[in-house]
Amino acid sequence: MTKLWSETIAQARSLVENETDRVANAANVCALLKERFGWWWVGVYYVDSTTDTLVLGPFQGPVACTRIPFGRGVCGTCWQRRESIVVPDVELFPGHIACSSLSRSEIVVPVFVPDGSVKAVLDIDSDKLDAFDDDDKSALEEIAKLL
Ligand code: SME
After folding, report:
1. For 121-142, how does the pLDDT look when each residue is reduced to its tens digit (9 = 90+)?
2. How far is the CA of 21 from the centre of ligand 1 (A)?
3. How far is the centre of ligand 1, averaged over its atoms, from the C-alpha of 145 (Å)?
């Protein structure tokens, strides 16, 4: 893992360790990631099991879609598959939901609760193609454990 990532994970951990409010913690983690890496959009969608949709949570970046159905788009597919999805070119992902026309690549990582179900997804968009590699995926999976 890069020094930048290990420092970022350590900082995220220190931001959340004394706070239990999930919105406050997600808001700070999104801000940290956006500031550190300069990505186009960084945010969290929470599972709303009463409507089988993801609902927008704390984020940094332009306004975004409020709700995403289970199995739809990259986020809903991540929820359905229960695994991280790296999309090097959003135009090549069938069903990609374009909240912003400037988004070119994307990574979505599931956030699990202890019983193993998905409670949220962490979604990051870049305005550059192929912006996310395996190192980013592993690091963001560590970050997701803090949310
Ligand atoms: N592109 C996502 C939608 C959310 S925005 O990127 C913020 C998707 O296809 O699920």
Report:
1. 999 999 999 999 999 999 999 9
2. 25
3. 21
Ligand 1 mutation pick, 75, 93, 105, max ligand atoms within 8 A of CB: 75
Atom of ligand 1 nearest to the CA of 97: 9
The pLDDT tens digits of the residues spanning 51-64 come to 999 999 999 999 99
Ligand 1 atom at minimum distance from 76 CA: 10
- List the structure tokens of 134: 């395996």
Q: Are 99 and 82 in contact (CB under 8 A)?
A: no
Strand order of the β-sheet with 67-69 is 67-69, 53-60, 41-48, 118-126, 105-112, 85-87
**pTM for the model:** 0.96
Q: Which residue has the tokens 């959009």?
A: 41
For the segment 27-39, the average pLDDT, to the nearest whole number, is 98
pLDDT value at residue 89: 97
